[in-house]
Amino acid sequence: MRVMPTRARTSSSWKMSNYNSDYFSSSSSSEEGITFVGQYYLKEIIGYGSFGYVKLAHHRLTDTMVAVKFLPKKELESHEIENEVDIVKSIHHPHIIQLFQVMEDEHCVYLVMELAPRGHLMGWIVKSSCHHLVEYEARRLFKQIVSAVHYLHKNRIVHRDLKPNNVLLDANRNAKISDFGLSIRLTPGQLLKRVCGALIFRPPEMFLHKTYDGYKVDIWILGVLLYVMTTGKFPFEGKKFADIRAQVLEANYTAPLYLSAKGHDLLSQLLTVDTNQRPNIEEVMEHPWLALDVGFDLVPDEPLPSKLDPIIVTVMCDMGYSIADTEKAIQDRAFNEAMGTYLVIQEHLRESVRSVELKTMPLVIPPCTTPEENYTSLLPTRRRASLPTLRNAFSLSSEFQLHGDDKQSLLKRSASLPVLPFCSRSSLIWGQDSFHWLNRIEHSHSVENALPSGQPHGEAIGSSWDNRQGWRRMANRIVIIFRRLCCCVRVPK
């Protein structure tokens, strides 16, 4: 038996109440039918796209969770499926959901994609304490979205459906654009006629039923998206179609209260009725509001791998894949099982290494001692248990290319996925949790001279008491000095 697909929800009227549920709590009836597609064990429905729906799935070979989008053939025209598959296979960007594999049977086309565990942007906004994003966080995410749209426009692709539940958040709360069901690849100078997308996100030119520039449609939708991010509300609302149409045609919206002057200026440019006056994506990227907050640069595009990583190939050889098949799948961009497994392992390792890098902090340099503290510097040097030790941490290299000798040697080797050490966020991040890290210094020094097994208790107590007291006093002074440097501000947990 096969799963009877639930028809995609494409209602043109949106309400905030539609987003009160969590991304993973989308209701789905207990459906009987297929539980496996290829190497993927299918679980519950976690979302709906413009066409089709998305299920949580488990990749059995790598123990990795992924998302599988179902495109039912009975409900969609063949050209609609081919268009979405063609687009998602051709794009690759850090802020666009990555495609791993494409499968097909007599009923559906299945798109195996990267999983964004924190759900969609609208759910994140609704669950925030003030029901909207603070400007700093809104700017960070909006930059990432703009960088992805710039990549799409550079490749002559328009999305046309950049609503908040099509912007997903990964484990690090970075934006990932998804759902390319309404996207289209344009030729130079091509104008579009189709009216599509959610009603309150449509630009004026769609309400006037004119031919329109697809790129300028994405710019208008970015304006609506920015408004929603900074207010938690939609700029154009009404009980009747005519009310919404009138507001859109005049760009009549209430100015956000929690947005700076530069943010207001960008918003007014994005929501410009005249398409000739509306900026293009390059002009949006150059706006002064996006230049604020050093450290959040626009991310460049990231090409698909062109050379095989020896570590991943070794793991795949252990799984039974041949080097020749894997190499051919990557070169041909086949998005078959071999390429899907390669990309799933690559993403798994990249996320693991990235999590270690994010949690790594510089070592604390003790302050200069006072004359009263000089006697502590005469204590014997010991390994400090509080300093983190990272083992097996590595970064993947894209410069390796397999040659004939390498292929033969890899066939004879056996390897498994490297185990990365668990690193507590509160103990390694330098910044907000620094006080927690410093507090743990005192605790770690109080136990670092614990008795080794088999050592007589009398000798250990007599020889190590002074050392323990000295280290404890030094740790206390380090904590006090850092608290003074940070103006005694305690960051809430």
Strand numbers in spatial order across the main sheet: 1-2-3-4-6-5
CATH architecture of the largest domain: Orthogonal Bundle
| Overall number of structural domains | 3
Poorly predicted ranges: 1-32, 356-405, 407-465
CATH topology of the largest domain: Transferase(Phosphotransferase), domain 1
Briefly note the structural class of the backbone.
alpha+beta
CATH class of the largest domain: Mainly Alpha
The fraction of residues assigned to DSSP E strands is 5-15%
CATH homologous superfamily assignment of the largest domain: Transferase(Phosphotransferase) domain 1
Calculate Rg over CA atoms. Answer: 27 Å
Task: Give the SSE string.
Answer: EEEEHEEHHEEEEHHHHHHHHHHHHH
Q: Please give the count of helices.
A: 16
Gap between N and C termini, in Å? Answer: 50 Å
On the 0-100 scale, what is the average pLDDT? 75
Total strand count, please? 10
Characterize the main sheet: 6 strands, antiparallel
Shape: globular
**Percent of residues in helical segments?**
25-40%
Organism: Dipodomys ordii
Pfam family, one: Pkinase
Domain Protein kinase: 40-290
GO molecular function, one term: ATP binding
Description:
One of its GO terms (biological process) is intracellular signal transduction. One of its GO terms (molecular function) is protein serine/threonine kinase activity. Belongs to the protein kinase superfamily. By secondary structure, this protein is of the alpha+beta class. It has three domains: 98 residues, Phosphorylase Kinase, domain 1, CATH 3.30.200.20; 170 residues, Transferase(Phosphotransferase) domain 1 (Transferase(Phosphotransferase), domain 1, Orthogonal Bundle); 89 residues, no CATH class. Helices cover 39% and strands 10% of the residues. It has a six-stranded antiparallel sheet. Helix 15 runs antiparallel to helix 16. The chain is globular and about 60 Å long. The N terminus is likely disordered.
